[in-house]
Amino acid sequence: MQVHQGGTCKHNDYSLLDFCVMINDIAEKLGPGENLLDIGAGNGLNDIALSHLFHQIVAVEPARNLFQVLQANIRDYQ
Known about the structure:
Elements: E1 2-4, H1 16-29, E2 35-39, H2 45-50, E3 56-60, H3 64-77
Parallel strand pairs: 1-3, 2-3
């Protein structure tokens, strides 16, 4: 997974059910071997949850504090 920082960021909160629905929708629309670009990746947990479904995920997070959390979460996951 590649991680990039830049730009500005807005954060949206959503429930666990919304998260699960989003994961299923993305998995159904994009198949294995596809690449995914996540702009505003936040803490990276969505990308980690999706990582087994895609060939490559590029996570872009512009907020420095969230970018650092994203990097730590990816390190912990790998």
